[in-house]
Amino acid sequence: MKSQTPSINSKSLQTDKSTCKLSPGLLYNLVLARSGTKQAEKSQTSRQLTPAAKAARLDASRKYRWKNEEILREKARTRMAARRQAMKDSTGVSEAYAEGVKKAHETYRNKQRKYLAFKQRLRRQEAYIAKYGAEAYHTRAAQDQARAEAALVMQAAEIRSKQSVGFESYAEQW
Predict the structure, then answer these.
(1) CA-to-CA distance for 83 and 72, rounded, in angstroms?
(2) Vertex 91, ends 87 and 95: CA angle to 5°?
């Protein structure tokens, strides 16, 4: 006769316990695995806290956090005061820091200026399109681009003429 070795499925758990060769603890765990976790079973049997005990624990942890936060804030204040004093004492560092701050502010102002100019261009573009239509806007944009290209061609021609005049006068000297 074959011995039955149950696996973790519903059929094996429904077999007769007398033919099962599992230890009682393993069988208990299999039943728990089928019904839920062992943790869930434990939590039902563990001692429950009263509302007063829960409130006392919460209050104690709140006081502990408040006390620690105050200590950490005081350490940070001390650290920052020491850093400010060190920066005042060493002129090279404070000047370099001031230069860095000025550069950062200038960079920020330039970015903001470009951003605002972009937004204003968009606003004016939308207003023009609303008033005259998209076709008129595109025609005007093409004319503006042609004018800009013509101006660039003129500037390039002026630069070439100045360079050639300078080169000829230099060549005449030799």
Answers:
(1) 16
(2) 85
93-134 pLDDT, tens per residue?
A: 778 888 899 999 999 999 999 999 999 999 999 999 999 999
Average pLDDT, the chain: 79
Domain ranges of the chain: 10-46
The region that residue 133 occupies, defined by phi over 0 for left and psi between -120 and 50 for alpha, beta otherwise, is: left
Question: Beta-carbon neighbour count of residue 134 at 10 Å?
Answer: 10
Dmax (CA) of the chain: 122
Give this prediction's pTM. 0.35
| DSSP secondary structure letters along 2-31 | PPP---SSHHHHTS-TTT----HHHHHHHH
Range in 7-11, 47-51, 97-101, 134-138 with the lowest mean pLDDT: 7-11
Dihedral sign for Cα 6, 9, 11, 16, please. positive
Contact assessment for residue 15 and residue 6, using Cβ atoms and an 8 Å cutoff: yes
